[in-house]
Design goal:
single chain; 386 residues; alpha+beta; Aminopeptidase; Nonspecific Lipid-transfer Protein, Chain A; 3 domains; 7-stranded mixed β-sheet; 24% helix
Length: 386
Amino acid sequence: MSVLVRPYQPQDRIGFGHVRSMVYRNGAPVSPDENLIPIDCMGFVAEIDGRIVGAFTGIDMWSTHHHRLVRTMGIASVGVLQEARSQGVGKALMAESMRSLKESNFVLASLYPFRGSFYRKFGYEYCGLRRRITCPAADFPSVEPTLPVRALKPHELDLVRPCYEAFAERYNGMNLRNEQQWVRQMGGETPFSLFTFGDPIEGYVAVRLQSTFWEDQPIREFVWTSSRAYATGLSFVKTLLVNKISATWDEPGDGLFAARHFERGISVGIENPIMYRVIDVPSSLRGLRCEHGEGEFVLEVADSQLPENAGPWRVRFNPDGTTVEPAETSQTGIRLGIGAYTQAWMGEPGWEGVRFTNDLEVLAPAHLEAARKLMPFRRGLCLDYF
C-alpha cells in the first residue's frame, strides 16, 4: 500500500478538513466558510488509494540567522486519520514533503513536536531551548520600574513591531512576522492585551488577563530591548498577581530571571521546545558573512531524505560574503548528519555542542575552527506558537 504526498489543491478541502476535524476538533465538522489555508500558508496532503488520510499546514516565515533572514516553513497541525495510522502515513508526510519545500526555495523548516524522537528520524533537532518560568506570587521579586507603562488598543499593534524586531535580531530562529502572523500570534479575533514600556517602546507584555482568582496568570509574550524595560516589565507583571497564585512566561536561554531572581519554589524548566531542520545545505551557507577575517572548510552532510545536500561543499568566506562550491570527497574536513548540522548552523547548541557527539567526525581540525568562525555560538529562540 503506497502513500502519495503532494501539495494541497482547492479540490482537497473536504478531505483536508476531515483530517483537521478528526485529529484537532474532536470530530466537530469544519465550518464551510473557514479558511483552512491562510494566505501566508500552504498545505500538504497524504493519500492512500485516492483518499486523503493525512495532512499538515505550513506557514511561510522568515527566520533570523546571524544578522540575516532565511525562508522558513513552520509545520503545523500534522495529522493522520485514526484508521490510517501505523501505515507509514506520518513518515511519508514528513519525508516526501521536504522535496517540495526545497523546490519552493525554503532553507529551513521548524515545528513543535508531540514526540521529538519521531521527527529526529527526518533530521529535525532541538535548537535554542526556551525557558519556561513559573514564579509564585509570594516569591515574585520587587523591582523598581523606571519606564512609563501604556495599554495599547488592538489597532495599535504595529507600534510594538520595531521593539520586537530589535529583540529578534539578538537571536537565531525568530520569525519576523508579517501582518497576518502578528494578528494570529496576538490572539486573532480575541486579541491579547498589550502593555508597553517606554516611549519610544523598549519592551512590552502580551497577556490574556485572567479574571478568576487563585489561578496562574500566563504571559503570552514578554519582550525587552533594555535592562530598564526588563525591570519595568517584571514590575508590571507583579501588579497582575493580585489575587493570583503565580505568573508563567518564557525567556531565552540568556534571560535574566533565572540568573538574578531565582529562589526555591520558583520553577525554571523547558516546556514544548521547537525543533528545526535545514532543508537546503548550500543555500543555508550562502549569504553568511564573517566580519572578523576569512577562512575555508570542506563540509559533508549525510541526509537520507535529501541526498543532494551531502556535498562535499567547499565553503570560502570573508567580510564580503560566502561562496559554496562542490568539492572532492578526499578534501572533506568535517562530516556530520543533517540533524547535527542543523544544531551547529543554528548556533545553539552550536559547533561546540555537537563536537562531543557521535554525529560529528572531524577529519581536519582547522576546518572545524573555520566553521566555528563563520557560524559562532548564538542563542536560539522562537516566540511564535503554531
